[in-house]
Structures are given as structure tokens and as C-alpha cells.
Amino acid sequence: MKLRSAIYLASAALALAALTLAGSLPSDAADKIDPVADAKAFQKFFTDKFPKVKFEDFVNGPYSMNEDLHRQWQEKEQFPPYEFSLEMGKEMFSKPFKNGKSYEDCFPNKGIGIRQNYPYFDEKEGKVITLELALNRCREANGEPPYSYVKDEMAALTAYMAFTSRGKPMDIKIPNDPRALAAYENGKEYFYTRRGQLNFSCATCHVQSPGERIRAEILAPALGIVNAMPIYRSEWSGMGTTSRRFTTCNSQIRGVPLSPQDDEYRNVEYYLSYVSNGLPISGPGARP
To answer: What positions does the domain Cytochrome c occupy (predicted)?
Structure first.
């Protein structure tokens, strides 16, 4: 047991050292990070693995995996289960705050048709800003309490904003800033790192096994997975945000979820969004 503990502690120390190095990201390491090459290889992996799936259909997750599922999705879209949330979000978005201002005052283009640009790297703050975080910051700046990142109100607001961007290609930028590259690389590392009692990484399900079943669920490909957010899930009997999806995934592999909008979750959303550049925004989406 002592030997096992020593090995575990040594491994943990090495992992921590690696993460620390990645976070500080010396210039020579930054020079080796190539998001453009990453995205190209990432997209090629999925298009080679699923040659019958049209590139733009990857945003439909499990419904893109075979004809029967695709037909189910088309039928579901005639009476989409997220419609109630969309209407709620539109009403919420247009309702002024108590000070007379509104969400329109916080976002470029008054918040319409901008979903494809989130998350972005804020050079002044040195961190990734997601749409969910920006919405709550908008509320707080105008004297309103923040919403839960995993509940219906946030899902409704992001559903409406995503809907106004439907069809626009994801367009995430990584500025020429070592901190932005570090955030991207840390997000990538988080995505591929195994954790939890099941020793799964995000990639275990969504890179190695998309199209396969895990119990009754068909796993979605990682390519385009964030383009459909937020989503209605039959499993939840309701809407869920990107934050809810990340924390749920960690729980499903019997890991300890981070706090919603933790830096690591924001970084992994940054990574996943960047490698899905060019795919259309399809949110709000629906999943089994």
C-alpha cells in the first residue's frame, strides 16, 4: 500500500507539474502549439471515421450517426421540445432591467446573431469568456442577481441567442497572446485527461466511441457538439446549458464536477468550439 501510495503521489506530482508548466507556457512551448493544425486534424479524424456523414450534420450529434436517428430528429424538429424555452428566452431577453437597460446594452450587435463568436479570449482579463458568463456579468453590472448556470433561465436566454445565430459558422478566434494559447492548450489537455472512478476522459466517449451505445444512449461525436448548445434532453426532461452538460459528464464518470464556469470548463469549451470552427450554429438542440 505504501508503494502504491508513493507511486500515486509521484504521478500526481508529475501531473501537477505538467499542468503548471502548461499554465505558465514558456515561449518555446507556445511556439509548438498549433490550433490551426489541431482543428484540421480533429475535423479530418471525424470525416474519415464517418465518411457518410455530411460535414454540417455533425452538429446534430447522435442524430447524425445513422438514417433512422436522422429521421427521428427531423420528425422531432417539427414540434421541437425546446420551443417553450426559446419563447421564454426571447421574452426574457427583451424585458428591461430595473434600471431601464437590457441585455442589448451589454453585447455587440445588441446580442443578436453573435453566438458563433463565443467563447472568446478577453486579452484585458487574460481569460476565456463564455456566453453564459457574459450574460451573468451583464445582469450583475445592471444590478440584477445572476442566474444559476445550470437552470432554466440561463438555458432559455442562451437558447434564444443561439437561435438568432442559427446557420452561422462557428468563428472562434485565438489571438496572438501566449495566455490565449495556454487557455486553448489547457482546455485540450482537460478534454483528453482521464478522471473519475471510471477513468474516462471526455475523448473516451466523444472521440473514441461516437455512434456506439452506452446503455440506451448513443454517444455524440465531439466535432460540433457545442454548436447545438443549449439542448433539451429527454433524460433531463428539460433544457440544459453547456455548464450543465460538463458537470453532468463529470458525474456520469463518477468524478467530482468542477464549479460551473470554472476556468477549466471555460478552457475546454474554448478548445471544443475552436476545433468546430466552420460548422454551423444549430442551437438550441435536442438530444435523447
So the answer is: 182-288
